[in-house]
Amino acid sequence: MTVVITPMSAEDASRCAELEQLLFPGENPWSADAFRAELRQPHNHYVVARDVAPRDVSGPIVGYAGIARLGRASDPENEVHTIGVDPARQRRGIGRLLLDALLVVADAHGGDTWLEVRTDNDAAQELYRGTGFVVVGTRPRYYQPSGADAFSMRRLAPASRREQVQR
User: Which pTM value belongs to this model?
Assistant: First the structure.
């Protein structure tokens, strides 16, 4: 089997909500309606990872991700809303494929990209650091209802990253 990234559709929302229940049971996981509402927003871009067989791109969803393109054209920024991978398929590069798909969108839009991640989620932090994100702050009790803290992370826009390397 091969994993492919495709745009999320309203029909995918139920499976994504199922994965949310598995991944975030104590954190108000998103419902199918919440995913559908996100898909209706023109500034959002959501994708799913499908486990596909040769010549069949309609395989089961094993992950999902979404990003918002924000700001004005003169001052753009991006915010990763969510990334989730089926627990049975984690640590196989699917999260990286999903994040890479979001970062292509972010780089085309321009501006820095932001996200929040639990302070105790070492695997996700490692993934984000591997694509240029750095911790820029902590948000106490960010996740509800658990009250878990989050790191705020930022990835500089491509032009900004090049300027930093040249210094």
Answer: 0.90
